[in-house]
Amino acid sequence: MSSYRIQGATGDWEVVIGLEVHAQVISNAKLFSGASTEFGAEPNAQVSLVDAAMPGMLPTINGECVRQAVRTGLALGAQINKFSVFDRKNYFYADLPQGYQISQFKHPVVGEGTVTLDLEGGVSKGVGVERIHLEQDAGKSMHDQHPQFTYVDLNRSGVALMEIVSMPDMRSPDEAGAYLTKLRTILRYIGTCDGNMEQGSMRADVNVSVRKPGDPLGTRCEIKNVNSIRFVRQAIEVEARRQVDIIEAGGTIDQETRLFDPNKGETRSMRSKEEAHDYRYFPDPDLLPLEFDDAFIEAARESLPELPDEKKARFMEALGLNDYNASVLVAEKESSEFFETLVEALAKATKKDAAHIALKASNWLTGDLFGALNKAGKTIATSPVSAEQGAELLALVEDGTISGRIAKDVFEVMFETGKGAGSIVEEKGLKQVSDTGAIEAIIDEVIAANPGQLEQYRAGKDKLLGFFVGQVMKATQGKANPGVVNSLLKPKLDG
Amino acid sequence: MSDLTKLKIAEARDLLAKGELTARELTEAHIAAVEAADTLNAYIEKTPEIALKQADAADARIKAGDAASMTGIPVGIKDLFATKGVHTQACSHILDGFKPEYESTVTQNLWDDGAVMLGKLNMDEFAMGSSNETSYYGPVKNPWRAEGSNADFVPGGSSGGSVASVAGYAAMGATASDTGGSIRQPAAFTGTFGIKPTYGRCSRYGMVAFASSLDQAGTITRDVRDGAIMLESIAGFDPKDSTSVDIPVPNFEAALTGDIRGMKIGIPQEYHLAGMPGEIEALWHQGIEWVKAAGAEVVDINLPHTKYALPTYYIVAPAEASSNLARYDGVRYGLREAPENGALDEMYETTRAEGFGDEVKRRIMIGTYVLSAGYYDAYYLKAQKVRQLIADDFKRAFEKVDAILTPTAPSAAFAFGEKSDDPLAMYLNDVFTVPASLAGLPGSSIPAGLSANGLPLGLQVLGKAWDEETVLRVSGVIEEAAVFTSQPELWWR
Amino acid sequence: MSNIDKATVAKIARLARIKIEDQKLEPLAGELNNILGWVEQLSEVNTDNIEPMSSVVDAKLRWREDVVSDGDKADSVLKNAPNAEYGFFAVPKVIE
Predict the structure, then answer these.
(1) CATH number of the domain that B464 lies in?
(2) Which residue among A47, A148, A154 places its CB closest to the CB of C93?
(3) Quick one: which of B98, B100, B101, B120 has its CA closest to B335?
(4) A2, pLDDT greater than 80
(5) Measured between CB atoms, which of B346, B353, B366 is closest to C20?
(6) Among the residues of A229-332, which ranges form H helices?
(7) B226 and B261 in contact (C-beta within 8 Å)?
(8) Considering only CA atoms, which of B406, B396, B326 is closest in space to residue B367?
(9) Tell me: the pLDDT tens digits for B440-463?
């Protein structure tokens, strides 16, 4: 695979990328209060007096948020710190009621780990995770509701976030995209974050710098709060180009915070907002250090489901799938679950070994069903055809009741109507004809009706075999078993 | 009956139980005393209606045979404690008009025991001060006056209203809070008994925060027994405070056996300050003689890092305060001062400039500085290391002794304005109280004598963590030996 | 060690969001230097290999169960607000 390079006037430049992902932890209640984390409530309805930072209110930690952070760390093969500390990050903002965010600075709950990227052509690459720490989300400011006022809603205030900080290990927009995709897949598999970037439950800060290949790291800029994978890729491209242009024009890069504007396709400085930022981190004296034991970590480990990389390996080794199909199937938890149900049901229906029918099932799923879903703008979760229904269809092909050709038609009807394959075949009389007597009679009719073609065939035009097969299939409306047709037709034609 | 406001809590409890006194009578007498004590400026909010309602409920409860020790006892509440629907401002302008929608755990515990609230008590703004001169509501006057003089003295701080109300017979007891000495120093200045329990013994839930790692609630009463009774009521584990510790509260009153025979009492040599007034040294010496006479063994001990306690405190406390007080921003409650067409930041800056007094601003500035980039290690981190050394000093000392005896303050009460222009001179008032605060240890101040000009002086007893019982027992013995029967003239009535 | 000048006081005041009149910066610098000069005696203490105190109580952080037990009290939350509209806190416009 060729490396991603920015072409500049002075030669090629390499891009160095690190990502800080803020992932909202799946929990019922907030990190330090008993208020709900659900989306979409009336303003300030999911706010406790703790979240509103009333005088004398104190934080108490939600154990589930700790468990979720530890599970995430374990899923990334990371070091789990049995001792960690909550610090206060001090700054003023209207949607930050305490005047500080409770976060973890010096001693995060999770240390170094790895995310393995699946790149094109079956190449994989490990990207280092530096740390994961727990922190509070802020509230929401709305600037466009009133000419003089900003409105503040504290419903999000205090919801638990995991900040997952990568090493500067990525070298192209594709790698950054693959990292986010993979991270999101893992978080969804283990159920620690819903990964919904549109709703803001997963957001990325992107650190970008450029250098000549082999040179030391350049000065980086941080692009804040990018809320889709597509924008992350675009932001990296334009930011890297901007930095190259500056350096090549003799300038230097200021380390600063920038904002990506997807409409204009540019990043711009947020320096005004950053002015005099000095967060004055210190351990939160309202909380004691966070401690847990090995048994807690082991219980968290045991609660983890099979992870995407493990699942992919199993699909390839135990079920004989190719790398491409396996990757596609494990990319979403729902697809992999659909596939496993499909294989299980099909194996049961055909009384065949899973390994025997898995490839066919994966081809149908990644080809026919995904294609139809794509076309209809649906997802696997909203698929009109269930895994059990898919298995019924494939079982009909497998036992020779219908041909593969007819199966495609039946699938179309299933997709439209949600009906079962068996009843469609029954209703429309699509059962494959394997009765040699009936097929022989039709073959005789076809041969009799096409004396000219028969003559040509016998004169050596072998290709006309296909013509006769087509005619027989047409006459049976596709229901004739193609194997039987072939075996009967040839001797008759050959005379 | 004679003046009901002169009753002690224990005495009133017994009279109430016997039916010789009603909570209503007791409360009415106190409401009148509160009214008559306006000159002291101890109360900044009076709640007679609430008091009478609670008194009637207390009478019903006593009648039903369901009384606790504090049932029907009229008390004052330091303005630091959130009281639902009632003025709670930590005596700061920035909390202008704030009436919380919640009750602090400490006060809730009192109400659950049937106590009666007379009102909210004056204090130094956000508990930052040692003379009650930083209150937005003006200073509190010490009920005590020097012999042959009409000059006013400070009551000490920050719990100035608490001690003045109790010393001035306008409450039978008062809640207070101690961050660096705010219970013990004012108790010493007013001839009252103050006790600060172990950090984590009383919940901080609903207590306006000054320095979270140091703040601890306690009580002011007229004697040791009353202190034991009231402390037992306010103390206890609270899941709403992560620093509250789940340890059962003993029967503190039962600890007052009067028997300290064989107990080892430590005398820290580093507390002999150069230039300390002779009468303080003499009082301390007297205290040593008293505990010896009661059969205790007196042992010289060393607390080598004592000298560094105050500077450590004046880094740690302002650092925490600078962060704790960031929530006062004019957005969700309290004062808002916004210039016409000003931006959000201007609102913050103006509100906080108008809302905080000079001492609070000074401490926020210091705290902000010591936490800022480039200074954190040199100041804050260094201070937390020294703080550990100070705690270790005590730990080692308590391997050898059961309690420590020292003076409470380096002087008697001083005049208004005497130290308010010199922050450092003011800070030095807490020289004997701050070390135990840094170590989270329980401590008390017992009225033990009078200065040459007739003002009260106190002795301090410090104990091991969670051993308030020994502190109370030794305090009781000193109280008995001191026979402190002096009372302020009721000049304000 | 510390020598806080007028500009530093202005910077700290800005960080702390406290407006301080220009003519008060100089005297405040003096006061702060006085206090900081005094606390700097801590540098005499040898703290090599000493862990900073992380908590004065010898206890572990307790954990809450993950149940929704609070909220649904917008009225209480907004009750003391200097300005609240349509269930929101209203503050002077933030210019982004």
Answers:
(1) 3.90.1300.10
(2) A148
(3) B98
(4) no
(5) B353
(6) 229-248, 271-274, 294-302, 308-317, 323-330
(7) no
(8) B326
(9) 999 999 999 999 999 999 999 999
- Mutation to test the C interface, candidates B369, B375, B388, B427, most C Cβ within 10 Å: B369
pLDDT tens digits, B360-397: 999 999 999 999 999 999 999 999 999 999 999 999 99
Please check whether residue A44 touches C, CB under 8 A: yes
Pairing of strands C84-85, A266-269: unpaired
The dihedral of CA A189, A194, A198, A204: what is its sign? negative
Its ipTM equals 0.97
By the 8 A CB rule, do A420 and A414 touch?
Answer: yes
Q: Is B261 helix (H, G, I), strand (E, B) or coil?
A: coil
A229-255 average pLDDT score: 96
SS3 A397: helix
pLDDT surpassing 90 at residue A472: no
CB-based contact A55 B82, cutoff 8 Å: yes
Q: pLDDT above 70 covers what percent of chain A?
A: 98
Pick from A300, A291, A232, A332: which is nearest to A78 by CA?
A300
Residue B327 to chain A, least CA–CA distance (Å):
5
Query: Is pLDDT of B334 > 50?
Result: yes
Burial class, A295, CB count within 10 angstroms (exposed 0-12 / middle 13-18 / buried 19+): exposed
Amino acid residing at B384: Q
Q: What is the pLDDT of residue B1?
A: 46
**B100 and A288: CB-CB below 8 Å?**
no
Contact list, C54 vs chain A (CB under 8 Å) = 85, 283, 288-289
Q: What region does C63 belong to: left with phi over 0, alpha with psi -120 to 50, or beta?
A: beta
- Cα gap B118→B453, rounded to integer Å: 32
Pairing of strands A202-211, A11-24: antiparallel
pLDDT exceeds 50 at position B414: yes
Is B158 labeled as catalytic in the residue annotation? yes
A424: its two tokens: 């469609």
Integer angstrom CA distances of residue C69 from A34, A49, A104, A384? 5, 12, 25, 39
- What is the per-residue pLDDT across B278-323, written as a single tens digit (0 to 9) for each? 999 999 999 999 999 999 999 999 999 999 999 999 999 999 999 9
Buried b (16+ CB within 10 A) or exposed e, B51-64: bbebbbbbbebbee
Whether the Cβ atoms of residue B445 and residue B185 lie closer than 8 Å to each other: yes
* Angstrom distance (rounded) from CA B177 to CA B90: 11
The torsion of the CA quartet C76, C82, C87, C89, rounded to 10 degrees, works out to: -110
CB atoms near residue A78 (< 10 Å): 23
Q: Which residues lie closer than 8 Å to A226 by C-beta, 6 or more apart?
A: A203, A204, A205, A206, A232, A235, A260
C67 at B interface, C-beta within 8 A: no
Show the CA angle centred on residue C47, arms to residues C41 and C52, nearest 5°. 105
Is A239 within 8 Å of A191 (Cβ atoms)? no
Residue B436 sits in which domain range? 1-493
A290 at C interface, C-beta within 8 A:
yes
Q: Is B233 a catalytic residue?
A: no
- Return d(Cα A439, Cα A433) in angstroms, integer: 7
Q: Which residue of C has its CA nearest to A278?
A: C15
AA letter at B246: D
CB contact under 8 A, C18 and B322: no
| Nearest alpha carbon to residue B278 among B145, B187, B411 | B411
Name the closest residue on chain C to residue A99, using Cα atoms. Answer: C16
Burial of A6 (0-12, 13-18, 19+ CB in 10 A): middle
Q: B2 pLDDT exceeds 70? A: no
Name the pTM for this structure.
0.92
- Domain tally, chain B: 1
* Catalytic choice (B104, B130, B158, B177): B158
